[in-house]
Amino acid sequence: MTSLAIEVQGLKKSYGSIEAVRGIDLQIAAGEVFALLGPNGAGKTTTVEILEGYRRRDAGSVSVLGFDPARRERAMKRRIGIVLQSTGVEQFLTVSEVIEMYRGYYPSPRPLDEIIDVVGLNEKRDERVKKLSGGQQRRLDVAIGLAGDPDLLFLDEPTTGFDPGARRRMWDAVKNLKALGKTILLTTHYMDEAQELADRVAVITEGRIVAEGPPGTIAGRETAKTIVRFRLPDRAPALPPSLKNAARARDGRIEIDSEDPRKLLHELTGWALEKNVTLDGLEVTRPTLEDVYLKLTGGEAEAAE
Amino acid sequence: MSDLALALRQTKYENRSFWRNPASAFFTFAFPLMFMVIFNLIFGNSKYSPFGQNATVSQFYTPALMAFSIITACYTNIAMGVVFAREGGILKRLRGTPLPPWIYLFARIAVSVMVATLLVVIIGLFGRVFYHVKLPGVRTLPALIVALVVGAATFCAIGLAMTSFVPNVDAAPAVVNATIFPLLFISDIFIPILNHKGVLTKIANIFPVKHLSNAVITAYNPHTVGSGFEGKDLLILGIWGVAAVIFAVRRFRWEPKEQS
Q1: A151: exposed, middle or buried (C-beta count within 10 Å: 0-12, 13-18, 19+)?
Q2: Helix, strand or coil for residue B173?
């Protein structure tokens, strides 16, 4: 039996008449990277903040490393690291001073040089926090979260607002942590991030988990239909009826779903060769995690917080 | 690390942050010294009868600006600093670490008290050297120290209590200064009040600023008879302090009021 880092049953939380979390169950194994996905206002942050001990639950049972986070015990805080969505840092201290300050709060902190290494802030270690770029500040947030060498790390939207290079560096940092055997609970808006980093994901909408599983197979992704996309030249002859009936136009291209892409492609390319028609931008894809996510969340990317 | 060692360590970091922040170093530390020079240059030669026939207003400003130093280092500095730390999410982050909350507050207060002490000493020496203001003798020195300590404790507590009235960072300077500046003018700090029967003095008597300045000035007054303890002023300061502590304990927040 693998030990569980986090176990949640029947978690509920309301703010006034608004039910933010309506009965969530979660089991996260030690050493697992688990991503919570969901639109703004779906209950992600509320759930995570209950696990972190910032908010109290209305109902349900919660165990974090064997502690009840509502009791805010120092012994629990010694074993977790929290990287909140938006938190400031002492602006006038240097990177290494800040990390050193936070290290002092923990009984067995991680060595300073290792922390700086993991987040890739070596060149900035003597720079004042005020002078760091947004991406560097965010990596400092993660560094602070690591100060106590936690068994469990909460990462709330670690790369929101990053440029692609900075996102890659953050991902590398998270992968380093995973290699160290840390349990990580990640929330994110980016499906590629979840795909890249998470062992398992859960999708939350309206306070409930609507799907859960490894990013490659969640919500039947691996058995879902393949999509074939292509563009036809302006004066191309009509598609044969068997293809035409299944085709739909989208963004100037033609899309056809198929359970057996071999057959479809055979037919399509055979027809194209025979009629000497080009198939520009021909693409065979499986539904991305984002496609699955949008379907599960009803496409509502933004809801009121 | 023991909690005591942790508290000293936290104080070291808060102290470093304070002096590296140009805004806090200037407004908290340089302000009282600047006023000391300006007020003395402008009003210094006027007579100030409570201190004696030939006494000048310069002699009033030494104790008055000591009281001001206590207020700016404790009240203004803590109210502003804690609101900035709260709205910036620093307090929320700290709440997620094993650091006991009292250690953070202790460190902030310790830095304020150190800054206040430094200011009081500098102002005392400045007055002595440039304006021949006699330092209090052994007879009233205990009264001066008690007045400064009670004042520091009271204004630290009021500073912490005040943070719950400040909704965001933009409002902080306005709320903090608007509550204190009018009192500084009517409470024997910026302007020596010679007629103590006016309406403004009656208003000033409700608030703690006047009682701090009065207690400090009495201890500094060469004509003070006896030990110079102003029991009534100290009592009213104490009541404000205790009320502020009770209020702060109930209303203090660690999370930003303005959630993004």
Answers
A1: middle
A2: helix
Cross-chain residue pair A148–B6, CB shorter than 8 Å: no
* Residue whose token pair is 């994901």: A201
Beta-carbon count within 10 A of B137 CB: 10
Q: Which residues of A touch B99 (CB under 8 A)?
A: 105
Nearest to B97 among A90, A93, A102 (CB): A102
Averaged confidence pLDDT in chain B: 91
Q: Which two tokens stand for residue B47?
A: 């007579």
> 10 Å Cβ neighbour count for A285?
12
Q: In whole angstroms, give the CA distance from residue A82 to residue A58.
A: 22
Residue where the block lists tokens 């302000």 = B31
Hey, is the C-beta of B17 within 8 angstroms of any chain A C-beta?
yes
The model's pTM is: 0.84
pLDDT per residue over B12-63, tens digit each?
A: 999 999 999 988 888 888 889 999 999 988 887 788 888 888 888 888 999 9
Residues B254 and B92: beta-carbon distance below 8 Å: yes
ipTM: 0.89
Q: Is residue B121 part of a domain?
A: yes
Cα–Cα distance list, B4 to A66, B11, B158, B245 (Å): 29, 11, 25, 22
Taking contacts as CB-CB distances below 8 angstroms, the residues of chain B near A85 are: 260
Tokens 């020496």 correspond to B125
Instruction: Name the residue range of residue B140's domain.
Output: 3-251
Q: Please check whether residue B14 lies inside any domain of the structure.
A: yes
Domain spans in chain A, listed from the N-terminal domain onward: 4-220, 225-285
Tell whether A67 is within 8 A of chain B (Cβ): no
Position B82 in a domain: yes
Task: State how many domains chain B has.
Answer: 1
> What tokens appear for B247 in the block?
């209020």
Structure tokens at B57: 């207003």
> A-chain residues within 8 Å CB-CB of B96?
52-54, 77, 80, 82, 84
Kindly report the nearest CA distance between residue A106 and chain B, in angstroms.
7
Predicted confidence at residue B234, as pLDDT, reads 95
Asked if A88 and B98 come within 8 Å (Cβ–Cβ), the reply is no
Instruction: Given CATH 3.40.50.300, say whether it is the number of domain A4-220.
Output: yes
